[in-house]
User: What shape does this take?
Amino acid sequence: MRRELRHAETIVETNSKGQCLCRPKRGCNWTIVTPLRNQPGMNCCHWIGAEIEIRAQWNANYAGK
Assistant: This one.
C-alpha cells in the first residue's frame, strides 16, 4: 500500500501570489489552491479535475501571475 502524500509533496508549481498547482494525494483529481492569508495552514481550492483540464486552467489564468 502506498502512503498518502503530504500537501507539500503534491505541489507541482507555485506562482508569485502563492497559488499552487497540485497533483493528487491519491486518486486522479488535480487542484489549484490559494493559501488563506488570515488563516495560516488553510487553503482555498479553486479548481478540481483531471490533469489536462487543470493544467490548461493553470496555464491560462494562474501561471506567471
About this structure: Residues 7-61 form one domain.
